[in-house]
Design a protein that fits this description.
With 407 residues, this protein is of the alpha/beta class. The protein has four domains: 97 residues, Nucleic acid-binding proteins (OB fold (Dihydrolipoamide Acetyltransferase, E2P), Beta Barrel); 127 residues, Response regulator (Rossmann fold, 3-Layer(aba) Sandwich); 84 residues; 54 residues, no CATH class. The protein is 44% helix and 21% strand. The protein contains twelve helices and 13 strands. The chain has a five-stranded mixed β-barrel with strand order 1-2-3-5-4. A five-stranded parallel sheet has the order 7-6-8-9-10, sandwiched between helices. Helix 4 packs parallel to helix 8, helix 5 runs parallel beside helix 6 and helix 9 packs antiparallel against helix 10. The radius of gyration is 35 Å and the shape is elongated. The N and C termini lie far apart (95 Å).
Amino acid sequence: MNPVYKVSEVNIYLKNLFNRDAVLSRIAVEGEVSNCKYHSTGHVYFTLKDSGGQLKCVMFAASRVKGLAFPMKEGDLVQVLGRISVFERDGVYQLYAERITQAGLGELYERYELLKKRLAAEGLFDREHKKTLPPYPKRIGIVTARTGAALQDILNILHRRNPYVQPVLSPAQVQGEGASQTIVRAIKRLEHADVDVIIVGRGGGSIEDLWAFNEENVARAVYECPVPVISCVGHETDTTIIDYVSDLRAPTPSAAAELAVGLAEELIARMVDYHSALTEAMSERIARKREELRHAERLLMMQKPTARLARRRDRMEAIRQQLHSAMENRFSKESKRLAVLAAKLDGLSPLKKLGGGFGYISDGSGKPVVSVLKQKPGDLLRILLKDGEMMVEVKETVAFDEKTEMK
């Protein structure tokens, strides 16, 4: 007589068979997504199907954090890497997903890894090639899309941290066919634009959206650039080839702007501290020399005859005059130095620029006007000059192309 098993025993037996199978323990399956449901627990339940069948799948929340980088939906053609096992309670087998990619991305990942290994072997990622960012940059080059949110984030942070720093945009196409060539040209233009730092990047997106920053020509342009480069491509979890080549990687465009420039208030406070320290040091040195002079005078008074005392007095008077002259020269030199620093700081003042034929333009709500692309004929703008302000009406707008803007 054949032995009789419980249902749960049969399911456990089948599960063990599945788990011991070398193919089923690590398998990649391609198919169309159906019945896709995102559970409140963070798990994702879906079915893979093709013209000949279907397969139940689940991706647990822990695997989803690193294994699903796009919003999967009904009808997507995907490749799922995972293991096939039996769900004992229902007595069904299903695919437990560890990583899900859009079909066709496997080739991109392979290209990414191959290029990364090759450039690393050539030494493009070595720390010894990294350039140090200047502590007080005056002009910041920006390579990104003219209309992207990344540009506005960078400009806002730069203005907030140090309004004296001048941003220089070298626009580029940041995704799609031919994007990598425009990025390379934008970097090359800034190499001759007298900038101190270059920020290269864009906002987040899929691996396909960010692919231009994984191209070899862009990586080599960043590596060969004589100006320090900060990369900021995508979100914090995105990593592209130029992140390894650049002199410094920032997790976001906003973070790149913060790394590029320091706070203007800190620079001014440091200058004040230097002035105070110099004044204190000079005062202490003068006091010390005066005490030495008084001590020498007391020694002279204790010695005779009178002729010797007179000679000592003459000598001390000469020393006193030399000391006074030296102190005057030192004070004059430091005063001139502080005047030069003050003049440089004054030259960076926005009000100074207003007096040189420049104006600050804002729209009706008081927001700064930074692009002609957001203006149209008939809009009223406010222009602030050195001695007043005036309202003007836009008659016509003309947008510069890439070449024109850099002139």
